[in-house]
């Protein structure tokens, strides 16, 4: 019983250390993940390197793959870009085994102490996040040492040794490796357990080799679970991950059964059993990656054939807002949240300003059909406001949220009210136009409306330039002030009836309010410290007038 308790405790520390490392990376770089991925996944070799490096940092190919599933689900990464990151993740996960074989665990307490000291005593958020990654690494190896110590008594258990000896059967070994890894959702941890058994003298590479291959299949379960409820493209990503490891397992199982590959790997480090397991694990993933690089796009085609993509659907005016993958291993949630919310904010802005444009047209030439369109868009804006608000409320409570991301989501949340009010004022303008549908406006009044409309639409183009939008709003306030004076004179001279004067005064107010709300949105966007321009409206800014 004591063996089981110590083994479970060591495994818990191992997995917690990996979770700490993932959390530290998420907090340190989560908001920059999208730009990093876009720059580095355009080339297959650089994409493989990226997947390898990220996995080396967090010591978990499962976490990297779940991140990729999340990015594909949010349409931040294409399926063909995902192929290379997944291949790199499979190479990066072998680093854990190599570090264990080097017996770096001997200094694990020092590593853990250094990381905790950085978290507790260093100033600066980034330094503390790096400290969290280092502390996680130390705790990971403390757990590994605990597992190794717990297994020492098992070398004297005939029942356990007889059970382990059955692993040399390829089918049993693969099933055991896949099942155990699927249970704990970490190939690094399950490989570490095999190394602990090898260090205790219970298994050798001949016994462990097929279990090792099965562990590469079992690690896919995390991504499979994360893709439940996600898009078809996200599920296709898990098919690629599974295909990669199944193909590699078939190839290496046949090679080990028909050639002395296992003896050859043992000969590299004949006195170091944990190193032999680490070397076979590395050889498996590196060779499988090299073999499949020419067929990367074929893997994507195969996934699309097995699970065809569905046509894009728009529901209630929403574009994406895909839920985050259901996994506690998810890194990149910060990047997904910022990308999806900013994309939806822009979509909501487009809809609101379509109403502004159509409301201006109503004043010039009223149409009941156009009025219906404006009311439909107003309902769409309200639904977007509700859906995005709910998403932000959930996203802002994400664990390890980056400070910049938290600030950005807060700014987006405050912007929603202003966008919703812009659409409301457009409806008001349309109602005013309906009241005056029978009255013909003068050429001068029509010119005023056209001018106000143009300047108001400029505010959308200036949404990322606070100085420009302030200048535009100030000029509109000055012009409306002059127009009001002219109207008073026209009413005095009976050149304008009172009803038209009241209608124009209300329209002036509505246009001013729209521009004021646009300026408030620009102030929110100006406060955001991360780059949003990659999701900017695709219109050239109109020069300030």
Automatic annotation (TrEMBL):
The record's listing under Gene3D superfamilies reads:
Phosphate transport system protein phou homolog 2, domain 2 (1.20.58.220)
Which InterPro entries does the UniProt entry name for this protein? Na/Pi_transpt, NaPi_cotrn-rel/YqeW-like, PhoU-like_sf, PhoU_dom
**TM region positions:** 46-70, 106-122, 134-152, 172-197, 209-230, 242-266, 278-297
Q: Which domain of life is it from?
A: Bacteria
Where, if anywhere, are coiled coils annotated? none
Asked if Transmembrane is a keyword of the record, the answer is: yes
Keyword hit for Cell membrane: yes
Record key words, sorted: Cell membrane, Membrane, Transmembrane, Transmembrane helix
Main location as per UniProt: membrane
Topologically, how does it sit relative to the membrane? Multi-pass membrane protein
Q: In what residue span(s) does the PhoU domain sit?
A: 345-432
**Compartmental location:** Cell membrane
Name the record gives this protein: Na/Pi cotransporter family protein
């Amino acid at each position: 019983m004591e063996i089981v308790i110590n083994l479970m405790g060591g495994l818990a520390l191992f997995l917690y250390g990996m979770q700490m490392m993932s959390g530290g990376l998420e907090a340190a770089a989560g908001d920059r993940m999208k730009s990093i991925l876009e720059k580095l996944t355009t080339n297959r070799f650089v994409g493989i390197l990226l997947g390898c490096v990220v996995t080396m940092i967090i010591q978990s190919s499962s976490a990297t793959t779940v991140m990729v599933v999340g990015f594909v689900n949010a349409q931040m990464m294409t399926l063909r870009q995902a192929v290379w990151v997944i291949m790199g993740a499979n190479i990066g996960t072998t680093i854990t085994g190599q570090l264990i074989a080097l017996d770096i665990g001997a200094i694990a307490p020092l590593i853990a102490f250094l990381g905790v000291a950085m978290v507790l005593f260093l100033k600066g958020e980034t330094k503390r996040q790096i400290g969290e990654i280092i502390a996680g690494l130390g705790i990971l190896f403390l757990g590994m040492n605990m597992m190794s110590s717990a297994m020492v008594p098992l070398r004297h258990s005939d029942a356990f040794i007889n059970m382990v000896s059955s692993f040399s059967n390829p089918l049993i070994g693969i099933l055991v490796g896949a099942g155990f890894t699927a249970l704990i959702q970490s190939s690094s941890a399950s490989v570490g357990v095999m190394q602990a058994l090898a260090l205790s003298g219970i298994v050798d590479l001949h016994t462990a080799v097929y279990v090792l291959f099965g562990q590469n299949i079992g690690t896919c379960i995390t991504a499979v679970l994360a893709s439940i409820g996600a898009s078809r493209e996200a599920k296709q990503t898990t098919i690629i991950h599974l295909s990669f490891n199944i193909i590699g397992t078939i190839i290496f199982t046949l090679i080990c059964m028909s050639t002395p590959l296992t003896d050859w790997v043992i000969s590299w480090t004949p006195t170091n059993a944990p190193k032999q397991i680490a070397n076979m694990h590395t050889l498996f993933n590196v060779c499988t990656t090299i073999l499949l690089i020419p067929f990367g796009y074929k893997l994507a085609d195969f996934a699309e054939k097995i699970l065809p993509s569905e046509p894009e659907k728009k529901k209630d005016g929403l574009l994406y807002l895909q839920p985050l993958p259901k996994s506690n291993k998810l890194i990149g949630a910060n990047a997904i949240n910022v990308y999806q919310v900013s994309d939806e904010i822009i979509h909501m802005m487009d809809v609101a300003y379509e109403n502004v444009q159509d409301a201006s047209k109503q004043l010039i030439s009223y149409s009941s059909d156009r009025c219906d369109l404006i009311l439909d868009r107003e309902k769409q804006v309200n639904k977007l406001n509700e859906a995005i608000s709910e998403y932000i409320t959930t996203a802002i409570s994400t664990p390890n949220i980056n400070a910049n991301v938290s600030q950005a989501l807060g700014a987006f949340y405050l912007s929603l009210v202003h966008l919703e009010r812009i659409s409301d004022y457009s409806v008001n303008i349309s109602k005013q136009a309906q009241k005056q549908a029978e009255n013909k406006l003068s050429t001068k009044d029509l010119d005023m409306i056209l001018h106000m409309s143009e300047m108001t639409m400029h505010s959308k183009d200036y949404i990322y330039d606070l100085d420009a939008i302030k200048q535009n709003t100030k000029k509109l306030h000055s012009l409306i002030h002059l127009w009001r004076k002219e109207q008073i004179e026209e009413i005095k001279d009976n050149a304008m009836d009172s009803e038209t004067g009241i209608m124009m005064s209300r329209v002036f107010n509505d246009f001013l309010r729209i521009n004021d709300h646009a300026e408030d949105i620009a102030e929110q966007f100006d406060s955001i410290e991360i780059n949003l321009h990659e999701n900017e409206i695709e219109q050239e800014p109109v020069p300030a007038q």
